[in-house]
Amino acid sequence: MVAFGVGLAVFSVAANESRNFTHFEDALTPSKFEITLEQLKSQAMTYQTRAKSPTGTANKEAAAIVDLFVWFQPAYLTKIGVQSAHSRFSEMVDGVNQAFLDSEIDVSIRLVNAEPLRNVSDELPLQSTIDSDGNVTQGALDRFNSVVLDVNARSEGPYYEYKKYAAYGADLVMYARDFREAEQTNLSLGVGANGGQISAIFDRYNGLSDEFMFESYSIFKHVIGHNFGGDHEVGKISTLTSESDARATTCDGGKNTIMWSGYDKNNAVSVYSNPNIQLGGEFCGELGKTDNTRVINSNAVITSNRWDAPDSLGIISFSQTGYTANETDGTVTITLTREGSLSGESEVELAILDDSATVGNDIAITSGVKRVFFSSGEASVTVVLNLIVDEVAETQESVNLILRYPLAATVTATQAKLTIEESGQVNPGEVDVSVSEAKVEGQDVVVTLNRSNGSDGEISFEVATGIMTATADLDAATADDFTALNTAVTFADGETQKTLNISTLDDDLVESTEGFSVMVTAKQNSIINNSQNVAQILDNDEVNAGSFTLSAADSQVNEDVGTLELTIDRTGGSDGAVEIGIAVEGGGEDFAQLDTTSVVFADGEVQKAVVVRVLNNNSTAQTTQNFSVVMTTPETVTASVARVTVTVLNDDEATQTSTADSGGGAFGWLSLLLAGLVFRKRQ
Hints:
Helix content is about 15%, strand content about 35%. It is built from 8 helices and 42 strands.
């Protein structure tokens, strides 16, 4: 579990007695500093209730729109990339707005601007320090507070950060800094002024791996909750002035609600405490005791009116949805238009996002962003982007253009595409993929990519192995049979062949021939043949299937025995699966039957039972009968005993029967007739 930083403790409040909550005529030099909700509530202030025009990710249906300004530590942008940072915080805003919606909080956050700090050095430690002589060395947090919020931070006037933040009139301000373990001994991932306008996130995401990718999304929801007066669970509150029911709790089987003081991604729910919400059969709050939702809702309007955003002076948009240039042109002109009120100055940020073309390789702009300014009365502005002419023959490429963070304006038609044509005729050719013939386990499978019918420019492919589906002729290899591969292959301009080796593993298992898939995917619109392939692995382990012996429990049985069990034993080896045929020969009337004509020994299996049913005639006395059970094996397998003969003993007694030509029978009937005649005559 990772601890959150505590509200106001880490942020100093600028000592400035001038407090101004209305729209400033001079947007660059307003008097402004950190104000808490308690201070706002304690003063009879009248707020200008002009509705803010929500754009971007803000929920337009929310009762309160709260503007957020994010300042990036430059080292943080270097670490994860400029566009990654902007996308990341845009997604964080989406996340907190979804959490508000799920928690029944009628508030929406709007990201109005995000840019790098100019006056907070990357070298500054996070916290201020005091040496033994009492000398104070200002840390990054106090420095941030000073340059952003204190109009009197220096004698020559406020810093750029103060002017820019004041111009936007944002309600909340956030400091985004890369996490530095050496300065974070308590592993604090974020801080938020409870009921105040300032917060900070110390992001552990490095821009490369998935580790910590979504951690700061949860931290963001937490510190923003502090800005609205939300607080931790009982016993962990960040300030004694928080409202009595501004408390976090658990629900859904003991999982923590958002404002819990520690972060555990496996034990959290994405809602603020609310006694009206049930998760997993548990209420996520208790009325009057744990209800951060009520606290945030009650402070929403005050927070949204902390400072007034400037009036919108017109609508800024791209003049067209697509722009095209040839790289030999050297430059391309992007035109932005402004409609509506042109009575004052306004500005917007133009962002160039990588696609098949990239910033720095195809377009000469370092950060991928450019601020565009409209003067009073100006209805259109042109932006000139410098194109890079390289010696690499390329196909048609493009970047995406985005308008965001308008000041004193709104934006529509926020997206356009810039297409860069290659300077000459380009023929990148096509690529054929082949896989080497079956390899004995332990040998490398060779994948060859041949480029033909052209070799202009750089083209790239992804080569990946996978587990195939077994077929009637080929078993599927497992992950233990080869070294998985997932890599990029790039042909340089003029290059025509690439090879990759895939290692197979030599084990001691007796196996059939196995296969795995090799898939090649084009990263551009390149022609690729035979993109799906199968590599085969031959087994090199000696097979010893063993010898098979057939035996019967008894060689003589009575005809009423019912069933007789025979056993097939496998000795001297047990490699591989073997199918054994079984049949009955002979038997006369007392014959035998089998329920199956074959048995299959699995790899390693050493014994099978075979049941023979002996049919009983039940009445007829007959001589002893014999039948045989015969075992047949594949040609590659030996049988030490393949036949067993069983004698069936008759158990019926002999009975004497009469026939028409039997002398004894005729005499008996004649004697009876004669006796009858004598008896009648004497009467």
